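Readers outside the structure-tokenisation community will struggle with the description of the input data as it stands. Showing the layout once, in full, would remove most of the difficulty. For illustration, here is how one protein appears when written out as sequence plus structure tokens:
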Amino acid sequence: MSNAQFNFPENFLWGGAIAANQAEGAYNEGGKGLSTQDVAPRGIMGPITEEPTEDNMKLIGIDLYHRYKEDVKLFAEMGFKVFRTSIAWSRIFPKGDELEPNEEGLQFYDDLFDECLKYGIEPLVTLSHYETPLHLSKEYDGWVNRKMVGFYERYATTVFKRYKNKVKYWLTFNEINSILEAPFMSGGIYTPKEKLSKQDLFQAIHHELVASASAVKLCHEIIPSAQIGCMILSMPTYPLTPNPDDMIKVMEFEHSNYFFGDVHVRGRYPGYMKRYFREQGIEIKMEAGDEEMLLNTVDFISFSYYMSICQTADPEKQKAGEGNLLGGVPNPYLAASEWGWQIDPQGLRYVLNMFYDRYQKPLFIVENGLGAVDELITGADGEKTVEDDYRIEYLNDHLVQVAEAIEDGVEVMGYTSWGCIDVVSASSAQLKKRYGYIYVDRHDDGSGTLERYRKKSFHWYKDIISTNGKSLKR
């Protein structure tokens, strides 16, 4: 394929993505209640605290709550067609189990979405992005408790009705399969991971899947013109060797992730999971109507893509890949980022083809990016900037593979790179792990002015969007 053949669809949704808990800050303003993020100062896999602590970078984030107009204007300058963010559930229902929502929280998102629409930017909104109200986690043990379905339905109904004329694209749960490795952050499950039984974990997953299907049904009823999708952490997996035992390990690992997409798209539990439940002594408690509810299937599949992994049946080589949330074995053919995440642009083409072959549904890449330590310098024009050619190379190479997948016949709706503006890392709660096109002057010790500066990649991405991908380089 030559450069002239990069043919992205005319209506391709170019943009960027963040999460409320990593950007907004203002954790105790506007009537907001505490979320699970407010007591996790070390990120997804770290310890939790009883109360928020001053060293939790997410309490201030990048202060998007007060600076969203400035930030949305910068997104518009890049030419964004879409902006993915989440609604902080505890801004709308501070404890999560109230009967009436918090008007101040609802108004904030009215203002944010209005600001996006002013510039012709479509909001893409995740209902639950690693920020379960803390009260629901502590009082109910999160999604282990069936009552969570009702609380989530009330929340979803509230925001669908409120923003039905402003939001066309919705996602139900962020990286829903990550609950397998991060039950507190992903599922609000307060029981420590090492004490959580497989029975309770998969019962919690069932409750989330029912709630997700219910949100799809509610969205279609309340906003018939909208589209709603699931969101999966994609992890393409290769056998470490041609040994058939390694291939079976790959199949078993991929089943654990495909399971979530299979239920969202096909509306039923797949046979391989039924076998797993039998062999593990797990019995999913189904309530009347659950099987019918699951038939409310998604309009599209969205996913994150950062890395691929290998699997092997050799116990001597079964070691977790550094930095890989879902484990796996490092690939000897791939380089890695500063955080040990292996860089594999072709894996994105592979996973796009695998998802499309499996589901025949439109796909949306809603997270992809490179976390790196950036150095703020003064450029030739006297403006502060970051010479992040490493990020440009990473994103260019991945977008070339998206173009290849489109040529393969894959229907790709859009691409929102992760952390379009620097945000607090979900995995490590650091700000030095930066992803954005926009540098935010805040540091891990809490210092900084919070001023925004355009990186070199800002201007590069602006050019990519304005040419609809034709300026990508092979």
